[in-house]
Model the fold of this input.
Amino acid sequence: MADCREWATPGGRTGDLRGEAKGAPGMGRWTEQVRCPISSLIVTNMAETGSITGSIVVLVSGCGTNLQALIDATADPAYGVRIAAVGADRDDIEGLNRARRAGIPTFVCRVADFTTRADWDAALASQVAAYRPQLVVLAGFMKLTGEAFLRQFGGRSVNTHPALSPSFPGVHGPKEALDYGVKVTGCTLFVVDAGVDTGPIVAQSAVSVHADDTVETLHERIKTVERQMLVDYVGRMVRDGFSVTERKVTIS
Ligand code: GRF
Done:
């Protein structure tokens, strides 16, 4: 399991997310521009987006157990979802291996291969767009997506977070919940916006904190619930469509 939690080590998402969220020039203006369409209209009309109905792209950075849950669910045609591709921001991760074993196309888009973060973000958006997904699922993807990505996929991207938002955003959700002494924590599925785990909430599931929990045992218990939640709600969002009004997400 140590390898599978590699993504959560210092130097991972914390720096990327917090630095970018606070430091990007013009961020306030960008946030406003991006958030307006997200909160006022979520595009579920496939004719408008040119998306392929039922198709999703999953983005990962690590072990990919959430991805695996989706792969397993898609084996049943009644689930109504097809994983068109799996993308990652790094090589040599189990998430990519899981996709390859399942015969799913993969791509890697590494920040280090681009001159600027904005260039990386635009390339990521373009690589995802090539598969024309109805929905983009960030499942343990440890990068904050930017303006280009949100312009194209804002309102039809979801992310999963191992805490009950708005508590404990960022990469250390289980540890911060444990340190704080909460008795109940959990996981949150949300529509991606420009913030760190701040988007409109699709679903949440609660998990009890045990007296003898470590960060690892707590996170594993959360992930068991998180995988089920992800499968349930991604299926419903794809099959039934959804809308977002202000912060309220409604599945049709
Ligand atoms: C999950 O707990 C997710 O909420 C967090 O990263 C973890 C990914 O786990 N963002 P896995 O790679 O799907 O096993």
In short: The CA atoms of residues 190 and 201 lie 4 Å apart. The first strand starts at residue 52 and ends at 60. Residues 4, 62-67, 95, 139-140, 160-162, 223, 226 surround 5-O-phosphono-beta-D-ribofuranosylamine (CB under 6 Å).
